[in-house]
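Ticket #4471: structure output looks truncated?

Reporter: J.K.
Steps to reproduce: submitted the chain below (176 residues) through the standard prediction queue, then opened the result file.
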Amino acid sequence: MQRLLTTVLAISFLSVFSQQSLAGPNQSAAPQTESSTAAARPTSQPDKATVYFYRYKQYAGSALKPSVYCDEVEVARMQNGHYFALTLDPGKHTFRSNDKQSGAEVDLKPGQEYFLRVEIVAGVMKGHGRLVAVVAEQAKYELRAKNLKPLDAENVTDKARVSSGPLQLAEEEKSK
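Returned output as attached by the reporter:
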């Protein structure tokens, strides 16, 4: 129990220290502009599948940016309180974050949406990311209710397949 408390306190201290060193003592981070996002929002492509990744905005581990991998290739670094969409060809794909013990192997269907939430899990020296598959109804609610922002362009590794524009889910496109 004492080790867990020490780990949580260390992670909290590191996240506060990292935020202050990035923004400076009397500065706040620069506001996000349209040009700071990666590619435009994903358009529904009937021959492709879309996988949405998101992370709640939380204080613990807020400075950590765990990597997100698709088929063992890094596609992005997940910021606290952000989301992005990954457009892929149908078929089997594997997804994971820094935690190699957890992940998901999904057989993607054309025109379908899938949702994976990135969670921070305490580690010995620092926290790491873990992916959790979320049912569409819950994920769509959480994406809207949590006031998440699009992922910043500097955190996108695979600019060809990752979109981090305004959130546009398939059911919303159909209702327009």
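Triage note (M.O.): checked the attachment and the full token line is present. Residues 12-41 have pLDDT under 50 and may be disordered.
Status: closed, working as intended.
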